[in-house]
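Show me any protein, fold above all:
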Amino acid sequence: MKQAKVLTDTELKRVLAICVTMQNGKRNRLMLMLSHYAGMRVGEIASLKWADVLDRDHKPKAMFYLKAENTKAKEARQVHLNAKLQRELTTYWAQLDRGKKL
C-alpha cells in the first residue's frame, strides 16, 4: 500500500491558518493537529471523549490509551500528546461550550 503524504511544516501552517477562518475552525484545527502530531486516524479522533485527553483538573494528559474497538487494527494503543497538542487542547477547552463533544 502506498504511504500517505505527510504535510511539510509550511503546508501544515498554511492549512492551520485556513482552519481558523472557517465555521468550527478551532475544532477542525485541533482535529488536524491530533492527526498530524499524534498520528491519529479520523475514526480514532471521532471516538475521543474529554475524559480520554484531560485529567480531573481539566489539564491535558501527556499520554492516553485508545481502546481496541476504536483503532483500525483493533488493538489498543498509547497516544502521546506533545506540548503543542497539550497547549491546543487547553486553548480549545477554555473557549468551548461544555455541552458539546470533543
The chain has one domain: 9-95. The CA atoms of residues 14 and 40 lie 20 Å apart. The chain has five helices and two strands. Residues 9-95 form one domain.
